[in-house]
Design a protein that fits this description.
This protein is of the alpha/beta class. It is built from 28 helices and 13 strands. Among the domains are: 46 residues, no CATH class; 265 residues, no CATH class; 131 residues, 2-Layer Sandwich (Transcription Regulator spoIIAA), CATH 3.30.750; 48 residues, no CATH class. The radius of gyration is 40 Å and the shape is elongated. The relative contact order is 0.11.
C-alpha cells in the first residue's frame, strides 16, 4: 500500500470530509479517486512538513496534562459523602452486597439450587468445620502459644476413694485412696485459639480499612492456579486416611506432607477393607451421577435441578450405618457424638495477643489469599467480579465476632466451595441455609448424624477436588503461551506442597514479583527498519522486508527508562549500535599510530590549506609525495541514532542522567541522537531536570519518520550542525514529499 504524508499547512483540514453524504463536486470526485488504489482499496495520502516537537507544539498549542492535587482529591472524596437517600443506599449496598443480590433474586430458578447446595454443604460442616489448611495453621499457632512464657498450665490433684479396700495387720478394712490429677490445658488452648481469631480479625479489618486489598494484584492467575492446586493436595492428604480407614500422626510445618505420606504408607497394611469398599462405591456413585447425568448435555436441560447426589450419599450412608452398625461390627469410623447447645459468650484473653500476633498475621494473610483465590476461580467461571477490600472487611467482622463464641478463624474451603457450585448453589442464600442447618443441628439434630461414616464425607470431598486437580491440564497450554507463567505455576505448586500453605503462598508471591522485576529490568529491545514505500517502521528481526536507513540506526527500548532498567538500556544500545567509549579509544589509538608512522621518516612536512604532502630528501634527489598512512581510523557506519520513545511510559532522574551520558558519549565520536514520540510526561521530566541543556529541543520529533527525514535532510545539506531551523517550514516540504513517496531516498532540493 502506498502511503504519503500530505499537509499544505500545519493547520490544514483532513481531506476525509469528501466521503460525506453531501453532493460532491467534480474536484471532490477526483480527490476521492486519487485516494483509491487501482484495485479499489483505500490509501493514505498526507502531505506535511517535518515536525520537530517544538515546531509541532508552536503550531498546535498543547495544554498541560491534567494533574490532581491531594487537596482536590480530598475535596472530590468529600463531595461523594452527601447526606442523601441515594448516597446512603449506595453505601449500604456496597457494605452489604447481600441486599443487592436479594433484590434481583429469582425464586423460580435460584431457590431450589440454593437450598439443596446449602443443605449438602451444611451437613459436611457437621463433622468438619472450616478449611483443613486453616485448621492446621490454627493448631500450629496453639502449639506455639502453649510454649510462650505468658501461658501457665495449672495441674490440680485430688484424693479419691476407691471402691476397692485393703486389709491392715489388724484385719481391719481401710478405704483405698488414689491421686487424681487434671490440668487446664484444654481451656488454655481454647483461650489461645480465641486470641488468635480476634487478632486475625483486627489485622484483616486494618487491611480492609486501609484498602490493602490491592495486594491481590500480585496474585496472578498462574500463581492462584498453582497455589490452589497445592492447597488441594493438602486437603486430599487430610481425607485420604479416612478412605482407607487408618490413623496417621499429625504433622505441621515444612515437609509435613512428606512425613504424613511416609506415615500413611507405613500403616497401609492396617487398611479397613469395609471402609475402603464403601469409599470407592461412594466415589463411583457420585462421579457417575455428576458426569453422566448432571453434566450430560442431553440430560441436563431436562432436569429442573441437578441431582443432589452428595446429599443423597450422606443420607444413605447415615441410614445404612445406623441399621448395619458398621462402627461396632466392621470398625468403620463414624462422626460420633455431636455436642448440642451454643457456647456461652466469653471475652478473648487480650494478654495473649502479643504472643500470637506473628502466627495471627500469617493466618490472616493465608486465609485472605485462599478466599480471594477461590473467589477469582469461581468468578471467572460465572462471569462476575469480586471486591477484595469488601472480602477483607467481611472476614474481619466475622472473625472478631466469632472470637467471642469459641469459633476458629473462618476461611473459604476449596472442596466445599466446589461442592456448592456443582450441586447448584447460585447466591449467598446458600450460606444462609447452611448456617440455619448448623444452628438446627447444634440445638436439636446433632444426635441424628452420629452414625454418619467419615469415609462418605471424605469421598465427597475427594470427588469435589477433581476440578482443582484438572488445573494440571493447563500446564501444556501455559508452556506454549509463556515460560515465565509456567515457572510461576510450578514453583507455587511445589512450594505449597513441599513447604506449607503459608510458605508456599509467600514463595509464590516472591517469585511472581521477581519475574515482574526481571521483565521490567530486561525488556525487549530491537532495531527498526522502514517498510518499503511507507512511513512505517518495524523490528527488522520480525519483518524481513524492513530496511535499515543508510547511516541511521533506529533503536527501540520497550519499557520505561528508570533506575531499574537504565543499565540494560545502555548495554543494549551499545550492543545494537556501538560502544562510543571503545570507539573513541580506538580512534585515538589509530591517530597515535598514524602519527608514529609519520615520525619514522627523515622528512619535512609541508601543510597547505587543502592537504598534507611529504617532501623526502634522499641524497642529491628531492622527491615530493602525498603522505598516505597504512592505518585507517575506525568507522562506526552511521551518523545518527534515533531513539523510539513511544514505548516509554515514564522516565525518572536516573533515566535522564543515563540518557544525558549516552548523548554526550556519542557526541564525542560525531554521532547525533534524536528522540521520537516523547510523551508529555517525559518532556515535562526533561524540563524539570534541565535535559535540554544537553540536547537541543529541535532534536525531539513527533514521529520516527520525521526524525529520519530530518537526518537525511541534514546529510544531504552537508551535515550541518544546526538543529534544523527549517523544520516545520514550507522550505522542507519537497524533501518530505519526495522521501515519503520513495522510501529512504531524499531529494537534493531544500
Amino acid at each position: 500500500m502506498n502511503r504519503r504524508r500530505h499537509y499544505k499547512k500545519p493547520h490544514s483540514k483532513w481531506i476525509h470530509h469528501i466521503f460525506g453524504k453531501k453532493k460532491m463536486s467534480s474536484d471532490d470526485v477526483e480527490s476521492r479517486e486519487s485516494l483509491l488504489e487501482p484495485n479499489g482499496h483505500a490509501k493514505v495520502v498526507v502531505e506535511r512538513p517535518v515536525f520537530s516537537q517544538q515546531k509541532f507544539d508552536e503550531g498546535f498549542s498543547p495544554g498541560a496534562r491534567p494533574q490532581t492535587t491531594f487537596k482536590e482529591s480530598l475535596l472530590k472524596s468529600c463531595k461523594k459523602c452527601q447526606c442523601s437517600k441515594d448516597c446512603f443506599l449506595s453505601f449500604l449496598y456496597r457494605i452489604f452486597p447481600f441486599i443487592g443480590i436479594m433484590k434481583d433474586y429469582n425464586i423460580r430458578t435460584d431457590l431450589t439450587g440454593d437450598i439443596v447446595s446449602g443443605l449438602t454443604v451444611g451437613i459436611m460442616h457437621i463433622p468438619q468445620g472450616t478449611f483443613a489448611v486453616a485448621c492446621l495453621m490454627m493448631g500450629s499457632a496453639i502449639e506455639k502459644g502453649l510454649k510462650s512464657p505468658g501461658v501457665h498450665i495449672i495441674t490440680t490433684c485430688v484424693n479419691e476413694s476407691s471402691a476397692m479396700a485393703t486389709m491392715n495387720l489388724t484385719n481391719q478394712s481401710l478405704p483405698l485412696y488414689t491421686l487424681s490429677c487434671s490440668d487446664n490445658t484444654e481451656s488454655v488452648k481454647l483461650e489461645i485459639a480465641m486470641a488468635v481469631t480476634f487478632v486475625v480479625g483486627l489485622i484483616q479489618l486494618l487491611m480492609g480499612v486501609t484498602r490493602l486489598g490491592f495486594v491481590t494484584t500480585y496474585l496472578s492467575d498462574p500463581l492462584i492456579s498453582g497455589f490452589t492446586t497445592g492447597a488441594a493436595c493438602h486437603v486430599f492428604t487430610s481425607q485420604i486416611k479416612h478412605v482407607f480407614g487408618i490413623t496417621t500422626d499429625r504433622y505441621s510445618g515444612a515437609f509435613k506432607l512428606i512425613y504424613t505420606y511416609i506415615d500413611f504408607f507405613g500403616k497401609l497394611a492396617h487398611t479397613n477393607a469395609v471402609t475402603l469398599i464403601a469409599s470407592v462405591l461412594c466415589m463411583a456413585m457420585i462421579y457417575i451421577v455428576k458426569e453422566y447425568i448432571n453434566n450430560n448435555p442431553k440430560i441436563k436441560p431436562r432436569l429442573k435441578m441437578p441431582v443432589p447426589i452428595e446429599l443423597i450419599a450422606v443420607v444413605l450412608g447415615t441410614v445404612i450405618s445406623y441399621f448395619v452398625d458398621i462402627n461396632n461390627n466392621y470398625g468403620v469410623k463414624i462422626v460420633g457424638d455431636i455436642p448440642t447447645g451454643l457456647p456461652v459468650p466469653t471475652v478473648p484473653n487480650f494478654s495473649l495477643m502479643p504472643d500470637v500476633i506473628a502466627d495471627a498475621f500469617a493466618l490472616a494473610v493465608v486465609v485472605f489469599a485462599i478466599s480471594v483465590s477461590m473467589g477469582k476461580i469461581l468468578a471467572r467461571r460465572h462471569g462476575y467480579e469480586i471486591e477484595s477490600n469488601q472480602e477483607l472487611i467481611a472476614y474481619a467482622i466475622t472473625n472478631i465476632g466469632s472470637s467471642f463464641f469459641s469459633s476458629f478463624a473462618s476461611s473459604a474451603s476449596l472442596s466445599r466451595s466446589l461442592i456448592q457450585e456443582h450441586v447448584g448453589g447460585v447466591t449467598q442464600l446458600t450460606g444462609l441455609v447452611s448456617s440455619a442447618l448448623l444452628l438446627l443441628v447444634l440445638l436439636v439434630l446433632g444426635p441424628y448424624f452420629k452414625t454418619l461414616p467419615k469415609c462418605v464425607l471424605a469421598a465427597i470431598i475427594i470427588v469435589a477436588l477433581k476440578g482443582m486437580f484438572r488445573q494440571f491440564l493447563e500446564l501444556p497450554k501455559l508452556w506454549k503461551l509463556s515460560k515465565i507463567d509456567f515457572l510461576i505455576w510450578i514453583l507455587s505448586f511445589l512450594a505449597t506442597v513441599i513447604l506449607d500453605v503459608d510458605l508456599g503462598l509467600l514463595f509464590g508471591v516472591i517469585v511472581a514479583i521477581f519475574t515482574v522485576v526481571y521483565r521490567v529490568q530486561r525488556p525487549y529491545v530491537c532495531v527498526l527498519g522502514q517498510m518499503p514505500g511507507t512511513d512505517i517502521y518495524r523490528d527488522i528481526s520480525v519483518y524481513k522486508e524492513a530496511q535499515e536507513i543508510p547511516r541511521v540506526k533506529i533503536f527501540r527500548f520497550e519499557n520505561a527508562l528508570f533506575f531499574v532498567s537504565v543499565e540494560h538500556f545502555k548495554n543494549m544500545l551499545f550492543k545494537f549500535t556501538c560502544n562510543p567509549r571503545h570507539v573513541k579509544q580506538d580512534i585515538e589509538a589509530a591517530r597515535y599510530r598514524i602519527q608514529k608512522e609519520k615520525d619514522k621518516f627523515d622528512k619535512i612536512t609541508f601543510k597547505n590549506s587543502t592537504d598534507e604532502v611529504e617532501m623526502t630528501v634522499n641524497g642529491n634527489e628531492t622527491q615530493i609525495s602525498e603522505f598516505q598512512s597504512s592505518i585507517v581510523e575506525p568507522e562506526v557506519g552511521f551518523d545518527t541514532i534515533i531513539l523510539d520513545c513511544s514505548t516509554w511510559s515514564f522516565i525518572d532522574a536516573m533515566g535522564v542522567k543515563a540518557l544525558t551520558s549516552v548523548i554526550n558519549d556519542f557526541r564525542e565520536i560525531d554521532v547525533k541522537i534524536h528522540l521520537a514520540f516523547c510523551k508529555a510526561g517525559i518532556r515535562e521530566m526533561f524540563e524539570k531536570t534541565g535535559f535540554f541543556g544537553c540536547l537541543d529541543r529541535h532534536n525531539l520529533f513527533v514521529t520516527v519518520h520525521d526524525a529520519v527525514l530530518h537526518a537525511q535532510h541534514q546529510k544531504t545539506n552537508g551535515d550541518s550542525d544546526s538543529d534544523s531551523p527549517q523544520d516545520g517550514a514550507p522550505g522542507s516540504l519537497a524533501v518530505v514529499v519526495q522521501s515519503a513517496s520513495s522510501g529512504s531516498e531524499t531529494d537534493d532540493k531544500s
